[in-house]
Each structure stands twice: as structure tokens, then as C-alpha cells.
Specification:
With 300 residues, the chain is α/β, with parallel strands linked by helices. Helix content is 35%, strand content 27%.
Length: 300
């Protein structure tokens, strides 16, 4: 697995990938005979004088990516994923997986996290202990007591403060993109490559909690029956039990959720942002591979 960059670098410091291809950088490789079409300035005149025929210098192309993990650390990410696992755990595994791929290719990795109270940026690094610090920071910030998620505010912070051309991996849960989201994504796409990874929400109406579960339903403040194990972490509101027990309501809920997922995927595709949605830790490797392949095939 490798990360493909569509954007050409502006200078050596912005980088791309360390490559076996010959290019122009500070890393001298060897000499070879001059052939028509070579740059005259690449001729090594001292070696040419010693050898008796023109020789040109060859260099190892030094191109490094700057991968930025843009992770939603609001309390939405502390909820349950579609597989029943913690969305936080799936997000950490996915972000760590792509960061490990980047570091293995010699890239540098940084991170920006945020919620409704603001965003925080972490410096770049490449070593394993640096990646672990980033992931531990995500783990510590995502709790049920954390502030609410605000992906728009997080993206806007990145758009305003990230100057170096980078590859961004946005990790969040199922959200419906608004025109404000699209506007800031267009700003980001003008300068950066953007990948979008969604951690799928749990299906809250898949089946009612059985009466033998050991936890009896209780009444909410309005007198309605609620399921004590199902609630919206964003608003901290319990889901009324009748929603899960009513077949028609379950059907409407599922229909709207699926429509929102498709709409988000369509919006991201129109914006030129490669995206994928994963629901479990078991899907992370395949999901990252699919995401990278979609990004590689995307037109600029």
C-alpha cells in the first residue's frame, strides 16, 4: 500500500516520495555518459576531464509527503459504530494505519484535532513513538464528556492555518454536508489532496432490546418509555423505545439514514474528494486500500 499524490510539489522542501527514479535533489547517486537532451548544467566537468568523455550526475529523487490527520474528537466519536465497536477505536486504527504507511515511505505526519470548542494542531514527525503520541492524544480527547463535534469548525481551522501543501485524511462519523462544508472543502482542495474517511454510525433501530436484557425500560421526562442503552451522544438524549418497536418508524429511520450516507458520498465525489465509509476494525485495512485506490484514480 502506498499514497499517491496528484499535486506537483513547488520546491524540494515540500517533497513527495523517496523514489528509485532519477531526479534532481541533494542526494547524489552516480555518473553516466552524457546523451543528447541532458541538461548541460548536470555535466560533472571534473569527472569528464578525468574520463575523457562527458559525464552527467544522477540524483535520487527526494520527494516526501506531509500527511495531516484531521480527526474529529467531539463526543460523537465516542459513540458506537455500525459494528457495535467504539467509533473511537475504529478511527484510531484507521488513522494509525495510514500514518504507518506514510512513515514507512519516509513521509512526515502531523495532526489537527477539534470539536465545538476549537482545534489543536500537533507537530510533524516520522518515528513510531511520534505516531503513538498522536494516537494517544486522540484516545484521550474522545470521551462521552467531551464537547460536541463540529467538523465545519475543524475544517475551517485547517484551511486557515495549514500553508504547506499536504495530504489530508479527514476522519469523522456520518454527517450531512452543508453548503458551508462544501465551501471550506473547495478551499482545501485548491491547495491540498483531501481524503475523507467516515466511521459508520450504529443502526439504532435494527432490532429492539429484548426484555430479557436485564435492564427494564424507564420513563423519560415527558412520560414516554425510553431505552436506557440507546441515546444520542451529541444531544445526550435517550431514544424512545417506541421508535425501535414500531416497524414503520424503523423503516423511515433506516431510509433517511441511508439517503444521507449516499448524499454525503455524492457531494464528496462532486467536490473531487476521495472517500470511503467503514463500520468496523475488521474493515480498516480493506477500507484504506479502497480509499487510496479511489484517490489514485481520481481526476484532478
Amino acid at each position: 500500500m502506498s499514497i499517491f499524490a496528484h499535486r506537483k510539489t513547488l520546491d524540494l522542501l515540500e517533497g513527495g516520495y523517496a523514489s528509485v527514479h532519477r531526479g534532481r535533489s541533494h542526494d547524489f547517486d552516480d555518473l553516466r555518459a552524457y546523451v543528447p537532451g541532458d541538461e548541460v548544467k548536470d555535466i560533472d566537468w571534473k569527472a569528464t576531464a578525468r574520463h575523457g568523455e562527458p559525464l552527467v550526475k544522477r540524483y535520487i529523487a527526494s520527494r516526501r509527503h506531509h500527511l495531516v490527520l484531521v480527526v474529529d474528537t467531539g463526543r460523537n466519536m465516542a459513540a458506537t459504530s455500525e459494528s457495535g465497536e467504539s467509533k473511537k477505536d475504529v478511527a484510531i486504527l484507521a488513522a494509525g494505519g495510514l500514518a504507518s504507511i506514510a512513515a514507512a515511505h519516509g513521509d512526515v505526519v502531523s495532526m489537527v484535532v477539534g470539536d465545538e470548542t476549537g482545534a489543536r494542531a500537533f507537530p510533524t514527525g516520522q518515528k513510531e513513538d511520534h505516531l503513538e503520541r498522536l494516537l494517544r492524544a486522540v484516545d484521550a480527547r474522545i470521551t462521552l464528556d467531551a464537547p460536541r463535534s463540529d467538523v465545519l469548525r475543524l475544517l475551517d481551522h485547517v484551511a486557515r492555518h495549514l500553508v504547506t501543501r499536504s495530504l489530508l485524511l479527514v476522519v469523522t462519523d456520518d454527517i450531512r454536508l452543508t453548503e458551508a462544508h462544501s465551501a471550506v472543502l473547495r478551499r482545501l482542495r485548491a491547495r491540498h489532496d483531501v481524503l475523507w474517511l467516515t466511521i459508520g454510525d450504529a443502526d439504532l433501530v435494527r432490532e429492539p432490546v429484548p426484555a430479557t436484557a436485564g435492564r427494564l425500560p424507564r420513563a423519560d421526562r415527558a412520560g414516554g418509555v425510553v431505552d436506557p442503552e440507546i441515546y444520542d451522544v451529541q444531544e445526550m438524549a435517550a431514544l424512545p423505545a417506541y421508535v425501535r418497536s414500531n416497524r414503520r418508524l424503523r423503516g423511515l429511520f433506516t431510509e433517511v439514514a441511508e439517503r444521507n450516507v449516499r448524499a454525503t458520498e455524492d457531494d464528496l465525489r462532486l467536490l473531487g474528494v476521495a472517500s470511503n465509509r467503514i463500520a468496523s476494525e475488521a474493515e480498516v485495512v480493506r477500507g484504506l486500500l479502497t480509499l487510496l485506490e479511489r484517490h489514485r484514480r481520481a481526476e484532478r
